[in-house]
Design goal:
Helix content is 39%, strand content 22%. The chain contains 3 helices and 4 strands. Strand 3 (54-57) and strand 4 (62-65) form a beta hairpin. Helix 1 (12-23) runs parallel beside helix 3 (67-78). The longest helix is centred in the N-terminal third of the chain and has 12 residues, at 12-23. The radius of gyration is 11 Å and the shape is globular.
Length: 79
């Protein structure tokens, strides 16, 4: 899997990104993160911060945060 989405259950921003990926027909894997912000070490390791959503597109070497930016990227680059 080359596209991975780090997300938190019930996060509306994460759901927006997930919907954009689904609408674009992108195959991706969701990495569900801990609700405790300080416990999101994996997200920090890959993105430098602990907030979600974070999208990692390994094939293109892209790691990004912020749902609006991710949705724009999906629409422009992955759709």
């Amino acid at each position: 899997m080359t596209v991975r989405l780090y997300a938190l259950e019930g996060c509306p921003y994460c759901e927006t990104v997930s919907d954009a990926l689904d609408d674009a027909g992108v195959a991706y894997e969701t990495e569900w993160v801990d609700g405790v912000h300080s416990s999101r070490d994996e997200v920090k390791r890959v993105s430098g911060q602990r907030a979600v959503p974070v999208l990692v597109d390994e094939a293109r070497g892209v790691t990004m945060a912020e749902s609006a930016n991710i949705v724009e990227y999906v629409e422009r680059s992955l759709a």
